[in-house]
Amino acid sequence: MTKIVILGAGSIGCWLGGHVVQGGAPVSLIGRERYKDQIAAHGLTLTHFERERIHCPEVDFQTDAKALHGADIVALCVKSQDSEIAAKQILHYAPEAVVVSFQNGIRNPETLRAILPAENIVPAIVPFNVTPNGPGAFHCGTAGDVVVDTHGAIEPLVTALERAGQGVRQSEQILGDQWAKMIVNLNNGLNTLSGGTLRDGLFQRDYRRALAACVEEAMEVADANGVSVGNFNGRSPAALVKTLRLPDMAYRLIMQTIVKIDAKARSSMLDDLEAGRVSEIDYLQGEIVKRAAIAGAQAPLNAAILAAVEQAFAAGKSPKLTGSDIYALLKK
Q1: Nearest Cα to 264, choosing from 131, 155, 148?
Q2: 139 to each of 77, 94, 250, 262, 326, how far by Cα in Å?
Q3: What is the pLDDT of residues 194-205, one digit of tens each?
Q4: What is the rounded distance in angstroms from the CA atom of residue 281 to the CA atom of residue 273?
Q5: Residue 43 — left, alpha, or beta (φ > 0 → left; ψ -120 to 50 → alpha)?
Q6: Domain containing 233: what range?
Q7: Among 89, 146, 171, 238, which residue is least crowded by beta carbons within 10 Å?
Q8: Which runs of consecutive H residues, i.e. helices, occur in 203-299?
């Protein structure tokens, strides 16, 4: 029987793990003590703004990497800055495991392949937002299918997710699609600066103008690096820019009829800020700035957001900027 392990069972890891349990496959989750205690006391509950609630009363939740021993498939959900440590743990306990990187950014597969067998690394994309909303409870506030580079050796994981209602699709150009996700996720930094919900920010035209400018700059950086940017949730970042620049009335109509996002959805980066955790900004705006330098270019707009988010994490709180405030940062 295939042994599946979720390494880094925070919000995304618990979401995926709960679906694997619901889908009938044996799985172990490895995460923090606080989640282990919450799930032991309350079970694991998953809610979605469009789908039925899932409740798993019993979950094999561990806190020690030893639970990796003998794993056939590892769903890696640790923060990007922890990839190297996680790779070394997998190498020690499950060196032959197929590792599916469900992480943000574009750098993680490279980090994993430097330590683990390159042919065992499967890049993947999680297009939706998940946040804690109670003890042992997690809520998904945006839509989308998980995207994987290949089904092959991870079929038991894919099958369990799909049985539980979580869509999965295969990408023929995963790197381009990862770039697309990273570019769209530049919104995480802006959401952290605004300190509110995603909808609150996106309903402000200057906020959208700031995001559109950062996205356009990032696409130029991708082009300078010879990368053909793919799609994220079926849309290209170029199409996103056009939508973001619509007048308020037209944009609100699209948000109500086409773009699927829960009114309470926030970015995981804002959650990290409020919980006192480390930021992943270096793998979003920071990545754009670094890739620009590699190509002999500059990315001043994303650099401005990077600096502001780093300052927010240093202060330990969101500056609660308006869309106009954020847009003004880019014009300095």
Answers
A1: 131
A2: 17, 31, 28, 10, 28
A3: 999 999 999 999
A4: 11
A5: left
A6: 176-330
A7: 238
A8: 205-224, 237-244, 248-257, 268-275, 285-294
Same domain, 124 and 269: no
324, 234: one domain:
yes
**Can you list the positions of beta strands (E) in the chain?**
4-7, 27-30, 44-48, 54-56, 60-62, 73-76, 98-101, 121-125, 130-134, 137-140, 146-148, 168-170
Q: Are residues 185 and 325 in the same domain?
A: yes
| 270 and 190 in a common domain | yes
Number of structural domains, the chain?
2
The two three-digit tokens of residue 260, written as one number: 């699927």
Distance CA 20, CA 160 (A): 5
Tell me the per-residue pLDDT of 151-189, one tens digit each, with 9 for 90 and over: 778 999 999 999 999 999 999 999 999 999 999 999 999
What confidence category does residue 258 fall into, taking pLDDT thresholds of 50, 70 and 90? low
Q: How far apart are CA 28 and CA 330, in angstroms?
A: 45
β-strands 98-101, 73-76 pairing: parallel
Whether 187 and 100 map to the same domain: the answer is: no
- Output the pTM of the full model: 0.90
Task: Please state at what angle helix 155-163 crosses helix 11-22, rounded to 10 degrees.
Answer: 80
φ and ψ at 44, to 5 degrees?
-110, 120
